[in-house]
Every structure is written in structure tokens, then in C-alpha cells.
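Researcher: Next sequence.
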Amino acid sequence: ELLSLKEQELVKAMDGSTIAARDLESLNEFSIQLTNDLEAYKKECASYRERILLKERDMSKMEQMLFDERKKVLSLESENEMLLNLADEKIVCAADSEKS
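Model: Next structure:
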């Protein structure tokens, strides 16, 4: 009966060193747990990345809204300035026509 490669390695380890089968099993369990922890960490990182991207999109939308509102404010300020100048001119014209 042929042994699998893993079984052959286990036999070699048992023959050529002081590593006991229970130590190998413990090491194997540790390796599995480490692999599981790594996968969980990768998923957590992906989740964080997704949340960061969503926050960045929200910030971008908010910045665009602020930019649009600032353009409106500047336009209204400009229009207000023109109306004030026009009102000043009318007042000056009215005062000049009263003097005449």
C-alpha cells in the first residue's frame, strides 16, 4: 500500500526527530487557525475598504454640493452689487432732478 506524500512526511518526521504525532497535530491545528484568522482579517480589511470608499463618495458629493452653493452665493452677491449700484444711480439721478 502506497503512503500519501503527507503521510510519508509524517513518518520521516517521526523517525528522524523528536516531533511527536500530537505535536504535529497541534502544529496543524495552529496552522489551520492561522489560515482562518488570515481569511477573516482579509474580509475585515475588504469591509473597511468598502466603508472608506463609501465615505469618500459621500464626501465628494458633499464637496460638490458646497461648491454649487458657493457658486449660487457668488452669483447672488454679484447680482446684489449690481442692484445696489443701480439703486445708487437712481438716487443720484433723483437728487439731481430735484435740484433742477
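Model: The chain has a mean pLDDT of 85. The radius of gyration is 39 Å.
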